[in-house]
Amino acid sequence: MKKILYLIRHGQTMFNLRRKVQGFCDSPLTELGIKQAKVAAKYFEDNNITFDHAYSSTSERACDTLEIVTDIPYKRLKGLKEWNFGTFEGESEDLNPPIPYGDFFAKYGGEEEKEFQKRIADTCKKIMEEDNEIVLAVSHGAACRNFMRYWAYTSSVDQKERIGNCCILKFEYENQEFKLIEIINHNFN
Hints:
Blueprint: E1 3-9, H1 14-18, H2 31-46, E2 53-57, H3 60-69, E3 75-77, H4 113-129, E4 134-139, H5 141-150, E5 168-174, E6 177-184
Parallel strand pairs: 1-4, 2-3, 2-4
Antiparallel strand pairs: 1-5, 5-6
Helix pairs in contact: 2-3, 4-5
């Protein structure tokens, strides 16, 4: 039986606005970030999508987004956290190397790319192996992108542009594999 995972990036934060690297470090949602989460909530409501379970990264920005999107109880999971960018945390995004980052951040106390991808993939797989059918998980931009990359070989849907705040990625899960079937981007203007 196919199960569904809705993986969402959190709403805009103060660090997003100021163009600061915010992997394991955190900053609060902006007014726009709150609006983005409300738009995502309305999407689920308008499409009569009801979640069995909900999960969030342990970061405040992800938890706050989830609490706006749905009022069901949820579990916080460290496995859904953003990439650990090491000493680049809190610094200007101008210091980032060109994409793909590869293992650049590992040299500065951060995570290796494959290790990070495996963490996110293993966490989502574990979530879907529980007694879940329709799941909401709130995570982060690089986490969502790397989860997409990890499962790119099963999916024909892709998005080359950056994963925007509150972008919704809809995955089917069957036979221990994820398949990206839809990307929902909203116009927040």
